[in-house]
Amino acid sequence: MSDLQTIPARRGKAVPLKRGEAIKIVNTHGHQVVDFWSFVAGHLTEFSGMEQCRATWLKLCPEVGDHLYSNHRRPLMTLEEDTSPGRHDSVMAPCDNERYGLLGCNGYHDNCKDNMHAALFELGYSVPFTPGSLNLFMNIPWQPDGSLSFDPPLSKPGDYVVWRAEIDCIAVMSCCPQDILDINNRNTVEAHYEVLTQ
Q1: What values do phi and psi take at 50, rounded to 5?
Q2: How far is 191 from 60, CA to CA, in rounded Å?
Q3: What are the tens digits of pLDDT across the range 166-177?
Q4: What is the reported pTM?
Q5: What is the CB neighbour count within 10 angstroms for residue 158?
């Protein structure tokens, strides 16, 4: 077991995981969304695919025991623990600078797309695309008429998830910098993670 590490507010972190290792992602303050991706080590063109996950889960949020599936429909990770209310989002794309422009921002705004690429770059990797993210702790209620909304989180301080690697992979996390909508209570803060061995 490693020490608890920080995902800085509005920034990202990437962590290599060997098969059998797990990553515990802690919503330290209870209201911080963490965008999450998994890439196959050595083959970064294979990565967690939200379309493939939803088609296999037959639901919008993963539950304990569910796999995170790749764009080639292989299980990359397994959700082993979830102390939160279980509301995570698999629909919304990671935020990018263009998104903030549509929300009225002038100039550059920190965003999850750039955080993902910066985190991979710190490990010496680069990819020319941005996969859809699994947005941990993000509360996007859906209605029978198909409408969606950006609502405050349901998680509590200290809530966490544990994802176990089924193959060697790279886990990437971004503390979402969204401070215009309610998803982070308009107060972006740090979160924490820990690598767990078997």
Answers
A1: -65, -35
A2: 23
A3: 999 999 999 999
A4: 0.97
A5: 13
Counting beta carbons within 10 angstroms of the beta carbon of residue 106, is it exposed (0 to 12), middle (13 to 18) or buried (19 or more)? exposed
- Rounded CA gap, 19 and 1, in Å? 15
41, 169 Cβ separation under 8 angstroms: yes
Tell me the domain boundaries of the chain.
14-180
82, 161 contact by CB (below 8 A): yes
Quick one: three-class SS letters along the chain? Answer: CCCCEEECCCCEEEEEECCCCEEEEEECCCCCCEEEEEEECCEEEEEECHHHHHHHHCCCCCCCCCEEEECCCCEEEEEEEECCCCCCECCCCCCCHHHHHHCCCCCCCCCHHHHHHHHHHHCCCCCCCCCCCEEECCECCECCCCCECCECCCCCCCEEEEEEECCCEEEEEEECCCCCCHHHCCCCCCEEEEEECC
Question: Hey, what amino acid is at 110?
Answer: D
Tokens matching residue 85: 């209310």
Cα 68 from Cα 138, distance rounded (Å): 17
> What would the pLDDT profile of 89-115 be if each residue is shown by its tens digit?
999 999 999 999 999 999 999 999 999
